[in-house]
Every structure is written in C-alpha cells, then in structure tokens.
Write a structure and sequence with these properties.
Largest sheet of chain A: 2 strands, antiparallel
Largest interface: A-C, 49 and 47 residues
Strand content of chain C: under 5%
Distance between the termini of chain C: 38 Å
Strand order of the largest sheet of chain A: 1-2
Radius of gyration of chain C: 19 Å
Helix content of chain A: over 70%
Shape of chain A: globular
Number of helices of chain C: 11
Strand content of chain A: under 5%
Chains: A mainly alpha (329), B alpha/beta (236), C mainly alpha (298)
Oligomer: heterotrimer
C-alpha cells in the first residue's frame, strides 16, 4: 500500500485510460455496424451498467444495503428533465445536473444513512423508494402523472444524415457511462478505494487506525447517488421523458439482483449485469411464447425471474464471480 | 454411564482451540478441568453440549455419541450445560428462568417437585421469585443458573467457571453446594474452572489443560500436591 | 371540534392497522433478527385468498378467518423451508449480513409474481362488511364509521390475545426466552428452531389480519401492501424493534402524526410525514421511543 502503490499509480492510470479509450472507440465502431434495435438495447445496457456501478459502490464497497437506488435515479432524472425542459439548458448540462443534484441529495441522505445499520437502512431506503416517485404527483412543477419530457435533440448536423436518433442515444449513454465508470474505477483503485476494503475486512481495526468510517460511508452514498442520478437521466433520455412510473421499486430490486449475480464487490461484472437486465424481459417474452402462456404470465415473468435470480445469487454465488475474495491478502 | 472423550479436536475459526484431548469421567464422578485463560476450556464444554462442532475425535455419554447432536436435544437427554457469564435471562423473572428447563417436560408434577427441591437448596431464589433475574447479584445469578439446570434432573452436568466474578465467600459456598448435591443426586460432573484450588478440592479427578492440550491427568488429590501444578496454578 | 374528534378517531383506527403490521415485523425481528420484507407479499397474498373466499361465499368474516389462518401457515412454511435453509447455507463472508434481507426481498418479488399470474394484476376490491359511512353525532357526520370501530375492536382483541399468549403460557415463555437468548433457550432444552417457526406463523397471522382490515376502501393489486409494510416498519422502528407494546404504540404515534398533519396542514403530506417521523426517530432515539431500558416482558 505504500511505496509500490505510489510509484506505479500514474502508469496504471494511464494504462487504464488507454484501455477505456480503446474500449470506447471499439464501441463506437460497433455502433456503426449494428441495427437500430441493438443500438437501443445497447444504450440500456450501458445505462443499467452505470446504475449497477452505483450499487456496487454503495452496497459492495461501503457495505450499505440500500433499496433506494430507483429513487435516486428518479431524482437525477427529474433534475435533468427540469434543466432541459424548464430551464432550457443544453442537454449535456442537463445530464450533469442529473448527477449533481442526485449527488447532493445523496449527500444529505447519506448523513442520515451512515448512522443506520443493515435492516434500518434497508427499511428507510425502501420507504424512500416507495414514496419518492409519488411526490411527483403532488407538485405540479414536476409534471404530475404525465411527467416531463426529456429531449436531448437529434445528433449534431456534422455527423451526417445517416446518424440516427438511436445511434445518438447510444453514443451519449455509452460514452457518459464509460467516462463515469472510468472515474469510479480510478477512485476505487486509489487509497480511497482501498480504505473501503480495510473497513470491510475489519471495521474495528480500520477505525482504530484513524479511518473515519462515517465520513467514508457518507461520501460513498453521495458519489453513488450521483452515479445513479446520471443513469436516471440517461434512462429517461432513452424513453424521452420522466414520469413517476419510470422508477418503480422493482427497479431497485432488479439492480440489486443484477449486482449480486455479477459481482457485488468489484466492477468487472457491471456490463454483464446490464446485459442481464436487458435480456431478462426478452427471455421472459420468448419463454412465454414458447409455452404459450397468458398475458398475465408475460407481465409477471420478468419480475419473477429477477427475484428468483436474486435469491439464487445470494445463496449460491454470494460473492459473484468469486475471484475477489480469493485475492484477499 | 460415563463420559468418554477421545482425540477431540476443535477449531475456533482459524485457531485450533482444542488438540487431541482425551479423558474419561466415570459415573457420579466430579472431574475438574483447570487451566489458564485461553486454554480452550470453554470451547471444550460448548462442544460437549452441542453449541459448537468438533473438527474430529469422539465424545460419548452413556455409550452414545454426543457430537453433532443439537444442543436442545442433548439438553433433553439429561446433559445440562451451565455456561459462563452467569447464564440467566436478565429480562425474565427468576420464576420464569427456573421454568425454562421444565417447559418441554411431560411430567409437570416432577418439575414442580424438582423446583421445590432447588428452592430448598437455594432459598434466596424463593425469596426473589418474581423479581427480574437482572436484579440479582452475581452469586444469586449463579445459583439461579445452576438451579435451572438441576430442575431438568440432569445426569451429566457441565459447569463453566461458576466462580467467575464472585466474592471468595460466595465462591466457597457455591463449591460446597455443588459438592453436596453432586453426591446426593449421583451426578456426573465436568467442572471447568480458573479457580484451580477450589475446583480440585471438591473434585475426584483433575485435568490440566494448556493451549488446547491435556498436560496432566491425575486424581485431584495428587494434583493438589503436585509441586508443578501448585506453582503454576495454585499460586504457591 | 368535530374535525378534532374525527382526526383522533381516524388516527386510532389507522394507527391500529399500522400497529398490526408493526407487530408482525417485530415478531419476526425478535425471533430471527431479520426484517421480513416479504411480509408485504404474504399480507397481500392472504388478502387475495380472502378475496377468493368472498367471491365464492360472499362472507367477509369467513374470508377474514381464512386469511388469518393461511397467513399463519404461509409464515410457518416460509420460515421452515425458505429461511432456515438459507441461514444454514450462508454462514460466512460479508454477504452474511445482507443475505437474509435480500432473500426476503427476492421472496417478495416471487410472491407478487405468483399473485399476478394467478389472479391477474388489475385492481380488485373487497367491500367492508359493515357500514363505512360516518357516524352521526349531535347532528354532524364525523369521518369515523362502524368499520373503523370494527378495526379498533379487532386490533384490541388481537393485542390482548397476543399478550396473554406471551405472558401467561408456556409457549409464550419459550418464545420470549428464545428471543432474548437463543443459546440459553437451547441449553434449557427448548427447540429454538420450532419456536422460531411459530413466531413466523404468528407474524403471518397478524399480517393476514392487517391485510384484510386494511383493504376495504383501497384497491387490491399485487403491490397493494408495499406501503402498509413500510408504514408498519416505521411504526416498529418508532416503538423500538424489541417490544410488542412498542410496536403497538409506534403504530399509534404514526397514525396520529399522519392523520393530524394531513388533516390540519395538507393532504399532500402523507408520505413526507411518515418519512420525517422515521428520520427523526432514527436520529434522535434509534432504539425506539418505547425501547425498554432494563427490558422486562414481551
């Protein structure tokens, strides 16, 4: 943790930057090769991956089990929508506001949450997840039931006529997610990130060696909320508007489930997690058409699959792809 | 009916708390297990009473194995463990605490009878029947814990440091009381103690445990007179 | 004046229902140290079962009885065949702390999916068995009906029975002992696992009662009890998760807080009030307003 870390750090970050840029470039090239549907789905994968990142940071790294990610995404979504629609700002500013406002909200929430342990935190965030979306109904400025439009506009003219809206969505969501995840990965590899591991491994020892656990938890909450907020903004960009029904409680469950399945304690599985979340409704659909079920079945099957996945994951693969735990030193 | 322990090995997390321990306690005998803190005595007892799993080895009581059996089943078959820390439920009354070991027994008359006997043995409990166990003194709690165990009419009694935290006068009382009812009820007893002197004085057999292994096994009298034991554990 | 009386009476009957759910939560918490989020699913499931009974027989009362009994059975089954294996299986690692919670969440989703599949997701409703029109007192109609009174009576009786069970019976003593100290209970020969299952059965029964009493006047759909669970949770936290009396008191406090703020300040404050009360209690006295100091009794 001492000298070796400091010497290698700049090189690792640079390597990582290179990796991410390469990956981003690959994605964009890929974007040229695939169809509209894939682009749209890919956008969701990226957005969900980002949301799952926030869960990994909050629940995996800082050990705070929160069911309120959907609420924080909603906060970000509304913040972004209001910025673009009501204040008339540029969409990029809108997305930044999504992250920022949600982050501030998360900071305040985190101050309360840091004092809460397991079940209390879960229950409180559950209350938040259920009640926050309904707040939109109460205040007309939030657009009530119909919500507010979220319009990032078409692609810039210089990209040419063939640059479809979906491709534009893909570019925005993939790049925004990539940039954000890059920051988070760097953050978690730094001393800040290592502190989390220390606290997780031995909270008493960590505290004795001077780590301010509460501060750590609050900061994790704030950052994770900012990430969630951005993903919320991206999500409503994809559906062109935010409304109370866009962020149901089940979304929190889905994110948690995907995070647990693909690895709660590291970021390696977030893209896979995003894929899982996009795939499940598809799988459900094809299952239903194969066994010829009712409409009811189609509606409930995705939720059922996610819940079953959650249970199986937490029982059978408690540490995700498992290699993080082996690297314990 | 005897307790036979052979090659018992118990792990506590990553630490081997008990290593290859063997001993035998004959029926009606009182065996004292002494040793310093951390010798593994409590872990040993907790494994014999079913609260903990052994890594290997065997332990049989009356011919049947008591390892891997649930604690509540062992308790119901006559093995009573009075665990350390004055194991009473502070939030319940003395009366309720005493009633715990009789809840599952079918012969309610015998339970009432046994309770009467215990109150005769420890009159202070009778006086404090409706008070919360948390309001009792250390010595009284110990009596309550032991009394509760006796109501179950156990055959094998596992006592974990009954003298811990008690004033010397009370300790003397407790040891004498233990000795008396052990003889009277023909109980087989394993007494784990840091107070080596007090324990050996009422015991038939003594086992010295150090860092999880048996260092010495002998009659209590011999151990009391053994110079090595005296200097290490008896403070002479 | 009538507004005040109405508010008080309505607070009592709302609070009573929150109290029922809070008790269900506390019963499980004390025996298993888990907040059973699936309770929202169990309660709504038993309510749907009650709904089916009403469809077939037209009797609310029969439905109520069936709901309570099926609630107990479902609760016991969940503990015995779902929670117990999970506890056995997940014993180490950082996941231990969140695994049971996550498991109950997963279970909630599964129950709600099953309900949607069997009964469909469209809104249903159950009618109250007695009048829901307000009483007339001294010429004015107050917003307190025979139904509200019924709820109060049921809850009072249920509380009484539960208290008698805990304080006066052997089973109750076993339940208390196992909650305070599972180890001492085990060493005394009490089958702690079975006792725990009983606790879940009781919780399920209370959840069943809460669901059936709550639903008249609201729509019945798979997520219909999510809010009730949250309110029950908040009530339980207010009272301190450790005592049944606290759960009841917490329910009442929450009922009063919500009704009074929505009556006198603004109807929009339903959620904010509940949430604020929760936050205040968690910050000021996290152990709960009615947490026993030197605890005595159930």
């Amino acid at each position: 943790m001492k000298k070796a870390g400091k010497v290698h750090k700049p090189t690792t970050t640079r390597k990582r930057l290179l990796l991410f840029v390469l990956f981003g470039w690959l994605l964009l090239i890929l974007g040229d090769r695939v169809g509209e549907l894939e682009l749209y789905q890919g956008s969701f994968v990226a957005t969900y991956a980002l949301a799952i990142t926030s869960v990994v940071l909050l629940t995996g790294y800082s050990g705070q089990l929160s069911l309120g990610q959907s609420a924080l995404m909603a906060v970000g979504a509304y913040a972004g929508a209001l910025s673009i629609f009501n204040a008339g700002w540029h969409p990029v500013i809108g997305l930044i506001m999504s992250a920022l406002i949600a982050g501030v909200f998360g900071l305040i929430l985190g101050l309360v949450a840091a004092r809460l342990s397991g079940p209390y935190l879960a229950g409180t965030t559950l209350a938040l997840a259920i009640s926050l979306p309904t707040l939109a109904n109460q205040f007309p400025i939030l657009g009530a039931e119909e919500g507010i439009a979220f319009d990032v506009g078409p692609a810039p003219a210089r990209f040419g006529e063939d640059f479809s809206q979906y491709k534009w969505f893909f570019w925005i969501s993939a790049l925004a997610s990539l940039i954000m995840v890059f920051f988070i990965v760097n953050l978690l590899s730094s001393r800040y990130g290592r502190t989390f591991k220390a606290v997780r491994d031995n909270p008493v020892a960590a505290q004795l060696s001077g780590i301010n656990v509460e501060q750590l938890k609050v900061s994790a909450f704030a950052i994770s909320s900012g990430v969630a907020g951005l993903s919320g903004g991206l999500l409503v960009m994809l559906i062109s508007g935010v409304s109370p029904s866009a962020f149901p409680l089940s979304l929190s469950f889905s994110l948690l489930g995907a995070a647990v399945v693909t690895g709660l304690y590291n970021l390696k599985g977030v893209i896979l997690g995003g894929l899982v979340l996009v795939a499940i409704p598809e799988i459900a659909d094809s299952l239903v058409s194969r066994i010829g079920g009712s409409d009811n079945l189609t509606t409930v099957l995705p939720g059922f699959l996610v819940s079953a996945l959650l249970i199986l994951a937490v029982v059978f693969t408690p540490n995700g792809p498992g290699h993080l735990l082996k690297k314990h030193h | 009916m005897s307790l036979i322990v052979e090659g018992l090995t118990i792990d506590h997390g990553a630490i081997r708390a008990i290593s290859n321990v063997s001993f035998k306690v004959g029926q009606g005998q009182l065996t004292a297990i002494i040793g310093a803190n951390g010798a593994g005595k409590t872990t040993l007892l907790r494994t014999l009473s079913g609260l903990k799993e052994a890594a290997s080895g065997s332990a049989t009581w009356n011919g049947s194995s008591i390892l891997g059996v649930r604690a509540e089943d062992l308790a119901r078959s006559g093995i009573m463990h009075v665990s350390d820390g004055k194991s009473v439920i502070a939030e319940l009354s003395v009366k309720d605490n005493l009633a715990l070991t009789g809840l599952w027994r079918k012969d309610k008359k015998d339970v009432a009878e046994a309770t009467k006997e215990v109150v005769e043995l420890f009159p202070i409990l009778g006086q404090r029947m409706n008070q919360s166990a948390g309001s009792l003194s250390g010595g009284e709690r110990q009596m309550l814990a032991i009394g509760r165990a006796l109501i179950a009419r156990p055959r094998l009694l596992l006592l974990d440091e009954p003298s811990l935290g008690l004033a010397p006068l009370i300790v003397e009382q407790i040891f004498q009381t233990i000795k008396s009812f052990v003889k009277r009820m023909d109980l087989t007893v394993v007494l784990v103690e840091q107070n080596a002197m007090g324990a050996l004085k009422i015991a038939d057999q003594g086992i010295v445990l150090n860092l999880g292994s048996v260092v010495l096994t002998d009659s209590a009298e011999n151990l009391l007179n053994d110079p090595a034991v005296r200097s290490a554990y008896l403070g002479f | 004046m009538t507004q005040f009386i109405t508010a008080v009476l309505t607070s009592l009957s709302s609070g009573a229902i929150y109290a029922l759910m809070a008790i269900a939560i506390v019963l499980v918490w004390r025996s298993t140290r888990v907040i059973n989020f699936a309770q929202a699913g169990q309660a709504v499931l038993t309510t749907y079962i009650g709904y089916t009974v009403i469809q077939r027989t037209g009797s609310f009362w029969l439905a109520l009885v069936v709901a309570v009994i099926s609630g107990a059975v479902i609760g016991a089954v969940i503990d015995r065949f779902f929670m117990r294996p999970i506890f056995k299986r997940v014993k180490s690692g950082p996941i231990v702390m969140i695994a049971p919670v996550v498991a109950t969440l997963g279970l909630l989703g599964i129950i709600q999916a099953i309900i949607g599949f069997v009964w469909g997701i469209t809104n249903q409703s159950i009618e109250a068995p007695v009048s829901t029109g307000g009483y007339k007192i001294m010429g004015t109609v107050i917003a307190f009906s025979s139904y509200n009174l019924l709820v109060l009576v049921f809850v009072a009786v249920a509380m009484l029975l539960l208290t008698l069970l805990f304080q006066r019976t052997n089973v109750g003593l076993a339940l208390r002992a196992s909650a305070y100290s599972p180890e001492i209970a085990k060493l005394s020969g009490i089958k702690v696992d079975s006792v725990r299952t009983l606790g879940w059965a009781l919780a399920g029964a209370f959840g069943g009662l809460a669901g059936m009493l709550y639903i008249p006047g609201y729509f019945l759909y798979p997520n219909a009890m999510d809010l009730l669970l949250v309110l029950g949770f908040i009530a339980a936290v207010i009272g301190g998760l450790e005592s049944l009396f606290g759960a009841f008191a917490g329910g009442m406090v929450l009922g009063f807080a919500i009704i009074f703020s929505t009556t006198y300040i603004s109807p929009k404050l339903f959620f904010p009030t509940a949430f604020i009360v929760l936050i205040i209690v968690l910050l000021v006295k996290p152990a709960g307003l009615f947490a026993p100091k030197k605890s005595r009794g159930a």
